[in-house]
Amino acid sequence: MCGIAGIFSVSPERKLDDQLLVNMAAIQHHRGPDGFGYHQLDGVGFSHARLSIIDLNERRAKQPFCSADESLMLAHNGEFYDFARIRADLVAQGARFNSKSDSEIAIHLYQRFGLEEMLVHLRGEFAFALYDRAQDTLHLVRDRFGIKPLYYTQTNESVIFGSELKVLFAHPDVERSFSSEGLFHQLIQVMVPGSTAFSGIKQVKPGHVVSIKRSEQGFDISDNTYWDVNFPKAEQHRNAQPEENYIQGVREKLLEAVQLRLTADVPVGCYLSGGIDSCAILGLSSAAAQNPIKAFTIGFDSAAYDETPIAQEMAQATQADHHIMSLSGDELYQHFEQTLWHTERTIYNTLGVAKYLMSKQVNQANYKVVLTGEGSDELFAGYPAFRKDLFLYGLDELDAQEKQQWQEMLEQSNKLFKGAMLSREQYDSAALDKVIGFTPSCLQPWLACSTFAHQLLAKSHRAEMVSYDPGSAIAQALDEQQLAERHPLDKAQYVWIKTMLEGQILTWGGDRVDMANSMEARPAFLDHHLAEYAFNIPPQYRIKQRKEKYVLREAMKGLLPETLYNREKFAFMAPPAHSDEKKWTAMRKLADKYLSKTQIERAGLLDHDAVLALFELHDSPEADDALKVQLDAVINHLLGVQILHQHFIATDVPALAAQRAVELGWSAN
Length: 669
Hints:
Structural class: alpha+beta
Strand content: 15-25%
Shape: globular
Radius of gyration: 24 Å
Number of helices: 31
Distance between the termini: 26 Å
């Protein structure tokens, strides 16, 4: 697990600045503190910051890797699982390896099979750059779900890429400014797939390859899908197998995914909450390992949000070495600014801060790798929004009264999260209705913030967004072929995976706050072999008799505490600011720093009068808990855009990167 960076010049004769490449690695030192490397060929330069997990020999496993004839150059971030078997097979066919790193298999697979077939063999979480000298083409590749980040932008002379936005901003030719659309989406949480908050900067989408070839006109850039979330058409679910077949299949596929992710040359731990997902991962890991597993749990000082009692029960059942980090509300806002340096986007809930602090403690415990439970809700329909869409649109046998009863029970059991996980009120997007057939419940809480967002924008940005429709922008980014003739539950899960999973769960709830402290998280549920199996499980086995993740519960029943087996899904969130006086005070202190009239006018992003009006609405007697939950999220976004401006626009990032390289002693000389 590492950080990568690179420059692809329009001219093959151009000699790149080696120290600039090193600076681009240095500013992401947190992703790879164990060493750095750089190399250039024909106006193409790569650099790499390394976190040693597989093959700890720094000299042997140092990246970038080149083929023996220097026709290929590779910089890789992430893990390729099952690499030892693949390597042995390639060696038997005549290949020769220079390291024991999993990364090196990519070069040999590409030489043997070419790009398209190579990707079929790659399993895991990864983002990499591969330059093919013979074709004069740079390929930027991202894993199937977007677990690992990869950004790129084009200047007049180059294409510049990196694992984080700050890596691109370390290059002096890269513009550092918010786009109006990007700013708007930072205020409503949900983003358009493939976009960022900043002008001219794109993400490589999950399951995509961006190929960049030099031409007489400059660059020819193509963006191609190599894998997608592919649910069967609704009619195919009618040919369901017996329930027990799916239960056994999930158990086998998940165990295989866990076993592969226990592979490392350093100790491997587990994150543990009070949910089925992380408990299943810990249970299987403990059974597969020879020694007790180290488990790490986040606890909150609010009993309504704290899951440590169930986590402790699971840890005791598996004889795990259990570490609990207990956090108070005011602590979270004390680390809000530093967390956003790493997330590079706004966060609606301080769970992102809690996970940043947790990864710090994991690092201090001398662990570099943990297995996590992310992805389970996406595969097995765990979120309350999925149940809502199922009974509203996917159960034709329910009459209107029964549907109303289902909704009332769902909202009562999730009242803490109304305004965030569930919308306060129905929000319909005509564009999404046209493409999907309905507006997925997972998007409604955030699209409902659009009215606030329009008012909160500074006049110049607001003028550009007068006719902007965020629902339409998201709808246009979805693949209609993957939605056509699908079951409503499949549609809802597809949309979540394309928006909230990649844009939230795997960024400010995953890689960015984990790698902030040099810690690799491995989400076993997002193994694509398991996922492809799960997509074909009929809806009635994902949610059965109002019980979410039914097939997973049954598959893991033998290792789950009875309390957890019978428990309804509880969204893992930190307590919102309004629920804790100390936390609210800590948030207001940060607001005084970043949301003053002077600071708002200096940044030029927000309207100060509208910000004051929003706080007044939050504090008004008419504001119920659901509205306060929603406004807490918007306030976090307001703080977020101001902090992002300070981190990446007001700050001279190229100078900061150069300074960081000096401090680290990372030099091209």
